[in-house]
Each structure stands twice: as C-alpha cells, then as structure tokens.
Amino acid sequence: MSRPVAPPLHDDHALHALHAQALQQLSPATLLRLRSARQAAPAARGRAHGWWMATACSAVAALALGYSFTANPPARPATLAVAATVDDSSDVLDENPDLYVWLGTTDLAME
C-alpha cells in the first residue's frame, strides 16, 4: 500500500500572499465577528489563570498537610496502661498454701 503524496511546502512569502487574498474575500460582517472574538479571548484566558492558581495552592496545602502527618506521627498510647490491665493471677498461688498441700497428696503432681 502506498502512502499519499504530501503537498509541497510553500515558502513564507507565498503563504502571506495566500492569507492576504483570503482576507480580501471575507465579508465585513465576518471580519467584525472575528475581531470581536479575538478581543474577547484574552479575558477568558485571564480567568483561566485564576483556576490554575487556586488548584496549585490547594495541591500545595494538601501536600504540606500530608507531610506534617508523616514527619510528626500522632503519639501512641502508653504501654503502661495496657500492662496495668493485664490480670496477673500468680499472686493467688502465693496466698493459698492449701493448693500446695493438695498437690502433694494427689498423684497429679507426679504425672
């Protein structure tokens, strides 16, 4: 399959002449609409910069907030509070000597 042949590139002067010829063929009403559209375009571009600035500032604020959480992680609760709630039943064995007497009289202690 062959590729289509590209049209030859014109030099700059020929393109300017073609543009001037196209402008002469336009009606005055069309030229007026084109001029008014060209003058209204910079006003629309000026408002677009405001949205970009607001978006960039929001992104910077979000990054700073995220970084602050990673740089200073929240404090974890103390482990002493957890250790205090653990039930240590070894004190019960020390307070009841009857357990040791019972273990000595049964054969369960030897198994």
Structure explained in plain terms:
Helix content is 71%, strand content 0%. It has one domain (25-110). It is rod-shaped and about 125 Å long. The chain has five helices and no strands. It has 111 residues and is mostly helical.
**What percentage of amino acids are in beta strands?**
under 5%
Number of domains: 1
Shape: rod-shaped
Poorly predicted runs: none
Q: What is the typical, i.e. mean, pLDDT?
A: 76
User: How far is the first residue's CA from the last residue's CA?
Assistant: 94 Å
Let me know the largest β-sheet: none
Give the class from helix and strand content and strand pairing: mainly alpha
Provide a count of the helices: 5
What are the secondary-structure elements, in order, as H or E? Answer: HHHHH
Number of strands: 0
Rg: 44 Å
- Secondary structure: helix percent: over 70%
Keywords:
111 residues, mainly alpha, rod-shaped
Question: Layout of SSEs?
Answer:
Elements: H1 12-25, H2 28-71, H3 79-85, H4 90-95, H5 98-105
TL;DR?
The chain has one domain (25-110).
